[in-house]
Amino acid sequence: MKFMTLAASVALAALSLTSARPMLAARQATCPANVLSCSSASSGIDGCCLPTMGTLLLVQQWYTTLGPSNQFTMHGLWPDTCSGGQGPSNGCDSSRVYTDVQTRLENYSGTGASIMDDMNTYWGSYTGDNNSFWSHEWSKHGTCVSTLAPTCHSDWVQDQDVYTFFSTALGLRKQYDLYAALANAGITPGSNPNVSDMHAAIQTAFGVDAEINCASGALSEIWLTFNIQNGNQYVLGNALSQGSCSGSISYPEKSGSPVTVPSSTTGPISHSTTQPSTPTSTSGSGSGSGLPSGRQTGSCSTNGATVCVSSGSSNQYSKCNSGSWNLNQCKKGLVCYSDTQTSTHCA
Ligand SMILES: *[C@@H]1O[C@H](CO)[C@@H](O)[C@H](O)[C@H]1NC(C)=O
Ligand SMILES: *[C@@H]1O[C@H](CO)[C@@H](O)[C@H](O)[C@H]1NC(C)=O
Ligand SMILES: *[C@@H]1O[C@H](CO)[C@@H](O)[C@H](O)[C@H]1NC(C)=O
Q: Region Disordered: what ranges (predicted)?
């Protein structure tokens, strides 16, 4: 650039900076409102408006050594074609293939809140190397979500694409609480549900069906299919397939402790919920807070309800499972605390 005048090189720099922006603004301005990806109206629409692949699968897993005992954890958010075809195994943008997603999420300086606690709680790897798992999911799948591409966002900051990918998936996981959907239909871990009843439970909770997959006759993953509109609105749709489970399957208990999950949901689709019944104390003195305490026995009506044997001083709690109370205990070193009439936590 030595041969250029200063004015010429400034002009060139200004041109290269601005040439990207008006194009982006134009691309964003032309996003049609309320057109759903994979609908007949979606063909030819810009990849910044609708994902070029078509759909996004929210893949949640049931892995007994990972996460809270009353929550599914994340495997991934996978772009698929409208007919279920997968993206390239090495991702879609080699310039954004990363091996340090953990650091990128920790360093992210945009306006979003830190998601590291939720990442480590709800997106753990069974190998223990969470960073490798996240980096793989980002590189193979995240780089294929065309709506997240940096060039689509005029106000993009470093790693906004990575952050948005993971925070979106975590938000959908929370919104579409599969554990609650099943528990509201009386299907809880430690039982052998008929997978037809699981499909029905998800249909009741979310209004659509999911793909339910098994490994060696045990529940392994549940896939929810989303189509996108207006760039970033995820609209739950029906699964393309029922999945690999059939008949009665094993829904094993997890080794972790339960977490208290707020019962309100903010999703666009209303969920059916079961009114919790108040458990009756059969023994024990309680914590003085008016919450139930004491070991519960016999039958119960709210599957998944938990009651501490002695809040704040014992690690034992009763849990309503398939219509009867069972005795459980918090992990070693933790004590049960009552939260509401029907829920507790270990700390
Ligand atoms: C994270 O931040 C540190 C400290 O500012 C910096 O040295 C490092 O390069 C950053 N890493 C990534 C992947 O952004
Ligand atoms: C990785 O995830 C697992 C499972 O959720 C979690 O127990 C562990 O603490 C996480 N690792 C780190 C370093 O936080
Ligand atoms: C599961 O439920 C379906 C539909 O109600 C029924 O046809 C099937 O026999 C059941 N399978 C088992 C293993 O209970």
A: 251-299
